[in-house]
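go over this record:
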Amino acid sequence: MFLNMKLLAQHTLNGFGGMGEGMSMQLARDGRRVLWLAHESAPKNFTAVDVSDPRSPQVIVQTDLAHAQMRSNSLEVAGDLMAVAYQVTKFGLKPAGFELFDPAVYYISEIPSELRASDVLLVSITAFALTLLATIYPARRAAATEPAEALRYE
């Protein structure tokens, strides 16, 4: 029956693989294919996995539920809107019902950073100065101690 299928990859979802019925594929604005998965039980709410390279899926984000007595029952993505439906174990617990999210805000492909030589120099000089200052007190105490007095209590 599965002769025409080939397993490309498997992912443990960072140890939180208990999935519910909710699963949806999104073609993100930047061209990536993102698989959104609802978790069947706490502590995780939903997980986003970049499956642009199907042989190497990468977890982008995992969110936590508000408490342990709820689960993400269903999940659906349409464009830039994601709906997640919740169930709770006891009547009256919040948040039962559903929440809407903008999935575009959950994944970051890179962390913007700028390495400046002036910053590296400032941090290096500050670290050296603090290290130098940290040696002054013990050195002064040691200089004030008579060697024979220090050895007497050894």
